[in-house]
Specification:
single chain; about 170 residues; alpha/beta; Rossmann fold; 6 helices; disordered N terminus; disordered C terminus
Length: about 170
Amino acid sequence: MGDGGPMAEKILVVDDELDVRSVLQDFFTSVEYEVLTAATGEDALNLAERGGPKVILLDVLMPGIDGLETCKILKAREKTRGIPVIMMTGYGIMPAQAEMVEAEDLVFKPFNLGDLLMRVKAISKVGHLTNRVERLLAYMEELDKNLAGEREHSSRQRKGEESLPGYDSSPR
């Protein structure tokens, strides 16, 4: 980042399971995100205020302050209320519970890293919107665009139209 290039977007990964934090940190770092991690809701609240993440990936079930309560506190605080939160769970949380604490999305473990990346990119693009309804509608539109792009990419790959890196397949 000291090369004068654009700053990486910062995300905060909150999960009490070290394996989950490590996988997400390695993955998002590999796609050029700056990743902050926290193992508890308390640490997440502190890092969110000090670290300025653009998106928070927040586990639901954690010791101490759980993810639902952490999200509720984040959304109540002036400094953190505008940070989009994607809740993560391997348990039977209902989407309505995530909605009640104003999380922007809910993903179920085990999750597909490509899908999670698509969600992070989409919410990052619309996170600046302060009206919750506008933000969620714009988020859905971004997800639709990303899904359409993925379908087209997959279709081109199946047809053999995808070019190899460094090889220009365009007609001359």
